[in-house]
Amino acid sequence: LNIDAIHMREINMPLAHPFETSFGLTTSRRILLVELESEGLTAWGECVAGEHPYFSDEMIDTAWIITETELAPRLLDANPEGGGDVPEIFKQVRGHRMAKAALENAVWDLEAQSRRISLAELLGGTREVIPCGVSIGIQPSLEKLLEKIETDLAAGYQRIKLKCKPGWDRHIFEAVRKRWPEILLSCDANSAYRMKDFDHIASWDEFNLLMIEQPLWYDDFYFHSMLQKRLETAICLDESIRNRRDALAAIDMESCQIINIKVGRVGGFSEAIAVHNAAEERGIPVWCGGMLETGIGRVHNIALSSLPNFSLPGDVSASVRFWAQDIIEPEVTVSAKGEITVPTGAGSGYAVMRGRIEDLTVRKQTLRA
Ligand code: OSB
Ligand code: MG
């Protein structure tokens, strides 16, 4: 695949609803999109790095400069046969996994288009539909939270994940369980707790949560394994898992029983598949995480979620939960059973809305071979 040009752009897009986690509040997204041109085909990738280095050490501005000065020039010089060749092309650059993923995923999309198969099939997907859950941010009040849950359950979502932090945990789990004793319910602390909180976290066992996501430090395995020994409830790791070796370490140390795979966090589809396979071989279920993506990232998440070991509902939800209007068509929709149908057409199966993206663009840069 000869890449003729790489177009980088930053778009600014307000979220339909503000999203609050233990690390901060997001009301509007600044997003780096990359577009590859190759022999008459075009393919897009979305970088999931945030506006600030709060979820991980990457942010849109570091991703921009690394893409412009290191990654895009390497990709333009190379001649990858497909997405699987890209990690080798980027190997000299350490870290910057979200920046790498945007370009690598676009190459996989391009490969699927050129071979006239679906991206899901190219990745090794086997599911025709994927089970979907939602992640509900910290709310101004408990009443507001219960309303949100009601709306998402009515829409059919199969699992509710509650963002939590000290002071927004036990009482909300208690209230939600009282109203909905049977639903699949989990929580995500985004590293908001410390060792002094172990007894407190252990007290959540009574709420029968499906999992507790990343309760401790973003870069930790050891203390999560200490905590897991104290819990009935499964720990799920998100931030800590950067690659296949991390997944193996976490599984062997019993730091978690479930893994959240985010394709950006692990550096692209190649490593995401490697994490998926390592977990599958060891009987650890995975699910696909979300990073408030536009449709471009969202459809890549859908393709990844079609792999067999994505057996738990992911944070892959409809466009309308995030955006007044998405930048792809058709928009991503979820059935009344809480499922998204995996597209079978060539490539991602969705079309990018160029005019709308142009309107949202605040900076642009083209690099050519
Ligand atoms: O930890 O899963 C997370 C959003 C931004 C950053 C981190 C996380 C999240 C979410 C939202 O939980 C998931 C989504 O996009 O639906
Ligand atoms: Mg998380």
Automatic annotation (TrEMBL):
<dbReference type="InterPro" id="IPR010197">
    <property type="entry name" value="OSBS/NAAAR"/>
</dbReference>
<dbReference type="Pfam" id="PF02746">
    <property type="entry name" value="MR_MLE_N"/>
</dbReference>
<dbReference type="InterPro" id="IPR036849">
    <property type="entry name" value="Enolase-like_C_sf"/>
</dbReference>
<keyword id="KW-0456">Lyase</keyword>
<keyword id="KW-0460">Magnesium</keyword>
<dbReference type="InterPro" id="IPR029065">
    <property type="entry name" value="Enolase_C-like"/>
</dbReference>
<dbReference type="GO" id="GO:0046872">
    <property type="term" value="F:metal ion binding"/>
</dbReference>
<dbReference type="Pfam" id="PF13378">
    <property type="entry name" value="MR_MLE_C"/>
</dbReference>
<dbReference type="GO" id="GO:0043748">
    <property type="term" value="F:O-succinylbenzoate synthase activity"/>
</dbReference>
<protein>
    <recommendedName>
        <fullName>o-succinylbenzoate synthase</fullName>
        <ecNumber>4.2.1.113</ecNumber>
    </recommendedName>
</protein>
<dbReference type="GO" id="GO:0016854">
    <property type="term" value="F:racemase and epimerase activity"/>
</dbReference>
<dbReference type="InterPro" id="IPR013341">
    <property type="entry name" value="Mandelate_racemase_N_dom"/>
</dbReference>
<dbReference type="GO" id="GO:0009234">
    <property type="term" value="P:menaquinone biosynthetic process"/>
</dbReference>
<feature type="domain" description="Mandelate racemase/muconate lactonizing enzyme C-terminal">
    <location>
        <begin position="142"/>
        <end position="234"/>
    </location>
</feature>
<dbReference type="InterPro" id="IPR013342">
    <property type="entry name" value="Mandelate_racemase_C"/>
</dbReference>
<keyword id="KW-0479">Metal-binding</keyword>
<dbReference type="InterPro" id="IPR029017">
    <property type="entry name" value="Enolase-like_N"/>
</dbReference>
